Give the backbone structure.
Amino acid sequence: MKKIILTGDRPTGPLHLGHYFGSLRNRVALQHEYDQFVMLADVQALTDNAENPEKVRNNILQVALDYLAVGIDPKQTTIFIQSMIPEIAELTIFYLNLVTLARLERNPTVKDEIKNKGFDNNIPAGFLMYPVSQAADITIFNAHLVPVGHDQLPMIEQTVELARKFNRIYGEVFVEPEALVPEDVGRLVGIDGKAKMSKSLGNAIYLSDSPDELTKKVMSMYTDPNHLKVSDPGQVEGNVVFAYLDIFDQNKAEVAELKAQYQRGGLGDVVLKKRLNVLIQDFLAPIRARRESFAKDPDAVMQILKAGTAHARSVAAQTLCKVKKAMKIDYF
Amino acid sequence: MKKIILTGDRPTGPLHLGHYFGSLRNRVALQHEYDQFVMLADVQALTDNAENPEKVRNNILQVALDYLAVGIDPKQTTIFIQSMIPEIAELTIFYLNLVTLARLERNPTVKDEIKNKGFDNNIPAGFLMYPVSQAADITIFNAHLVPVGHDQLPMIEQTVELARKFNRIYGEVFVEPEALVPEDVGRLVGIDGKAKMSKSLGNAIYLSDSPDELTKKVMSMYTDPNHLKVSDPGQVEGNVVFAYLDIFDQNKAEVAELKAQYQRGGLGDVVLKKRLNVLIQDFLAPIRARRESFAKDPDAVMQILKAGTAHARSVAAQTLCKVKKAMKIDYF
């Protein structure tokens, strides 16, 4: 039997190139080897978007379109909606009894996020709890592997702790999952060069960007602010255009030559940006085409999610049945 | 349409006279007037009994027998098991996003309980959250009224806050419940006279006590420790036997006379205890008989719970459907 792998995204916006290189392309590859579940984490998205449910609602379809566009194949991958699996909520409630408040407050990932989101003393209880909800997401599908970045490793630790504690108290029910940390591709930097690509920073290139939007973004990329005239020597390090050429340009020799020329002086940003624009346009064109083709029939996409959700629910229900039996609350 | 009233008990032990005078007798009366839901709160019981699920499991039947024995009528009252209503868990998760951690930590009832249970810094997250779970219990059944003691008023406040916040953000779904604080009967003191009757203090007379157990408990009741000889004057205040005679003895004139005689001296504890024992035996005999009769067929009792749970679930499912529609997560 294939091992089970679980990943997902919070549907708070369309997906961008950072998602593609960080996870989507791995999912496309892994779906052949593993029994893959991909979750549209709307409940988790609501933990800090409670007052903005339209955003979550609308992005379910957008993210699903992104999945299908990059080649996640619903025949091989179960794509499902978190809120439609009540068993996850039930297991979350049971797990909450097996973890102390102090332990949740020590979680480094959550601590960072609380700081970044500026919650101060107004942390929604649900936000603090979300690692527990994630543990339920992962274990209810008996996932062996969870692809995560380094910053998410504390989440997997928390999950293993909960699965282990449950198994110790109530008897063996859960698989202890492992993190699958992808080979570091280098985090894709945003077009402003300031930080990793992220929707909230407004520095992202979306899989769904139109050719014009894409061109505009590439032409506005951060380069070397001291490279004022073509004849000036320029910096390659921290130069977003070169960072992207390293990823998109297969002609490594020419890129090396361009870097040398840029550093000597005599090579303008516009030339480089035009070269990069062609490459990203070529990369995104087939993805965009598939996306537009699926977008013509949103009902069909929702049907894919419905079928995936039904399958996911049947797996979750089987696990919860074992959970309740182990906890001796299987009354009738 | 009748107004809806919701109450319940944590199935952590059989019920005692404190429960009877504090709530059970009101439920028997209220079931005619209201559409009454009575919840066996096993999920809540697990918040501080996670490592002891047998206790919770076994007491489901015991508490149900107590209900039936005192005259809670399943034809008029929906008796149901909390863990079998997944919609409560789902709503709890949604509510957790609408309350801050700081607000939960301020809840005076929970603060007291955390102190009493000696959790120190090892507060199970689920325990801190249980007012949110209670808010879900109450509002998912659209309860207008929740009978509670004064010490539980902060729980109803928390529920009203959550219902109001949900309605404000997502649109009107929930009834804002009101507390129904019963006329103060004086908390039934335990047989040791030290505190209110409570299972954990070991000072309780159970509805299921045998005649011999009952006699033993009455004969060991705390009276006046300085009333050593029959001829000594004795204290009525703080004397458990007189506190109980005030409740169980309908002959108020005779009780007044006994009190006067006791205070003068010349009246022994044993005489009084025997009088009280007869009265409580008479009171508990029909309850015990009904209990024993139901206990002969535990399957039939579980069938009553199954039917009640099915009805409760259909009500909860209707509410959750409105909740998800309001939150715009009703995808298909």
